[in-house]
Amino acid sequence: MSRDCNTGGSRRDVLFGAIAGVVTLAPGITLTTFGAAQAKPAGEPVSSKIRWGLLVDVGKCKPDCDACIKACAQENGLTTTSRPEIDAQWIRKVTLRDRQSGVTRTTVAMCQHCENPPCVDVCPTGASFRREDGIVLVDKHICIGCRYCMMACPFKARSFVHEDHDDQTTAAPRGKGVVESCNFCVTRVDAGKKPACVEACAGKGGGALTFGDLNDPDSDLSRALKTLPTAQLRSYLELNQGVRYANLK
Amino acid sequence: MKRAFGPSHRAGRGALLALILLAAPALAETPIPHPPRGKGEHCVADTAFMRRNHMDMMFAHRTEAVHEGVRTEKFSLAGCVACHAVKGEDGKPVAYASEKHFCRSCHSYAAVSIDCFECHKSTPDETAKTANASERQDEEKLAAHLREVKP
Predict the structure, then answer these.
(1) Which pLDDT score is estimated for A34?
(2) Does residue A104 lie in a domain region?
(3) How confident is the model at residue B41 (pLDDT cuts 50, 70, 90)?
(4) A166, A169, A179, A189: best mutation site toward chain B, by most B Cβ within 10 Å?
(5) Which residues 72-101 in chain B show a CB within 8 A of chain A?
(6) Residues A81 and A190 in one domain
(7) Strand pairing category for A209-213 and A52-57
(8) How many distinct structural domains can be found in chain A?
């Protein structure tokens, strides 16, 4: 819209641009943060037309960088407790070592947002669920903290909150007694933004993370998937994860 | 039978009336909750409706928000918290741990324990705080202007 205005479009173009800008701004979301193809009005439910996915380019992940992990912790209020060994991990750094050559590289692991998630299969209350747009998350209102999902997850992606917290963020309610994991920063995604880790990686990191709609052939993610050889972790389980890895081998 | 109880019944009624008259000042002092006013002109629905139905509205909203991604501001807990923030002595909004918190002003009185704030943040976001700050700046500007106009 703003491009129309700048390239000297007609008066009508300018006016239309202005109106559209106001309309988009009304629900409290700025025009710039709202990707054109990914815009969802706040009052509309998510649909299966979109499937959110993430590409991790292992070749671009810097070994000494933890920008994504810090950004995740800040966005979701993942603060340390009196026992750091039981802290929740929504995203973690993984070192890959080739046994023959000894070459090491790093990458990140988090909830892989499976199409057929084992955590959802085993959940006795329906708290672990997959949203229409492919995001797998926990409804903490109905989670009873049984931790079956933690055992079922082939990627060790879930964490249990062991201690009381009073330092939550508005975007990520969390408290003792429930399981949680990466949810692609679901409130940010619903507001048309990218997950905090992806933004941080593009800014301070190596730009290893690409987030987008797997169903949209023109999204950055789909284009990257067409050009790079990518893989899914433990693909023999046929879970069809939303998270893909490039340059893994 | 009825007549036999007549005089004593009348006497009883008199005693009750006297009791009510005597107890009237005490009744006036019965503590009732006084929830602090929100920031805006009015709530997202009538006060009477909200008093009776806020829990159902929030329950419906929570299911829609978590499962379907419907994140409208009306009936969102974050919206309630932002609008009904009560400032403490340090000028910052108080958390649910404080008796001054908006939700506690009624819930403590009615002995209804809620667990919303075991997970949810009970104070407004930083952005909401900045809104307060700018509000305060406006008030200060207005006061300065009035001092100039009407010394």
Answers:
(1) 42
(2) yes
(3) confident
(4) A166
(5) 72-73, 78, 81, 95, 97
(6) yes
(7) antiparallel
(8) 2
Are residues A25 and A125 both part of a single domain? no
Residue spans per domain, chain B: 47-149
Domain shared by A146 and A67, yes or no: yes
Give me the count of residues in chain A.
Answer: 249
Does A178 sit within 8 Å of B120, measured CB to CB?
no
Contacts (Cβ under 8 Å, ≥6 apart) of B48: none
The enclosing H or E element of A106 equals strand A104-110
Mean pLDDT, rounded, of chain A:
87
ipTM: 0.80
At A4 the pLDDT is 40
Closest alpha carbon within chain A to B62: A141
* Residues of A at the B interface, defined by Cβ within 8 angstroms: 27-28, 40, 42-46, 129, 131-133, 137, 139-141, 164, 166, 168-170, 173-176, 178, 186-187, 190-191
pLDDT of residue B1: 41
Please report whether residue A44 resides in a domain. Answer: no
How far CA A124 is from CA of A112, A141, A146, B5, in Å, comes to 21, 14, 9, 65
Question: How does strand A104-110 pair with strand A91-97?
Answer: antiparallel
A126 and A165 part of one domain: yes
- The structure's pTM equals 0.76
Distance between CA A64 and CA A35 in Å, rounded? Answer: 31
Checking if the pLDDT of B19 tops 80, the result is no
- My answer on whether A23 and A123 are in the same domain is no
Based on the fold, state whether residues A6 and A96 are members of the same structural domain: no
Q: What are phi and psi of A23, to 5 degrees?
A: -60, -45
**Chain A residues with beta carbon closer than 8 angstroms to that of B97:** 166
In a domain, A95, yes or no: yes
Q: Which residue has the higher pLDDT, A161 or B125?
A: A161
Q: Are residues A17 and A130 in the same domain?
A: no
Q: Which residue has the higher pLDDT, A2 or B97?
A: B97
Is A141 within 8 Å of B95 when comparing Cβ atoms?
no
* pLDDT above 80: residue A1: no
Q: Is the pLDDT of residue A187 over 90?
A: yes
Which range marks the domain in which residue A77 is found? Answer: 52-246
Q: What is the structure's pLDDT at A43?
A: 86
Q: Would residue A38 count as lying in a domain?
A: no
B70: contact with A, CB 8 A cutoff: yes
Question: If you search the block for the tokens 């789909």, which residue do you land on?
Answer: A222
